[in-house]
Amino acid sequence: MDIILPELGEGISKATVVCWHAKVGDMVHLEDEICEVTTDKATFNVEAPANGRLKSMIIPLGQEVMVGGLLGTIEE
Question: What is the model's pLDDT at position 41?
């Protein structure tokens, strides 16, 4: 299951990953706050889209990702 950066608000097209709340191999549950991103307007938590094990973190800390972009993956 892909972890996608969701729509964050009108006029926001990208965000920077500032914190991962889990590490690769950790079990996560649907709607757990899995990472934190920031924009020039606010900070947002991204929730896990499914139960499973965090398989990958595609975007490392400090890197930008576009809305709709792949943050990581969960192995169900």
Answer: 86
- Strand-pair category, 70-75 with 27-28: unpaired
Domains delineated in the chain? 2-75 (2.40.50.100)
If you write DSSP's letter for every residue of 3-70 in order, what string do you get?
EE----STT--EEEEEEESS-TT-EE-TT-EEEEEE-SS-EEEEEPSSSEEEEEE-S-TT-EEETT-E
Q: CA-CA distances (angstroms) from residue 6 to 25, 39, 45?
A: 23, 13, 10
Give the global pTM: 0.91
Task: Identify the H or E element spanning 75.
Answer: strand 70-75
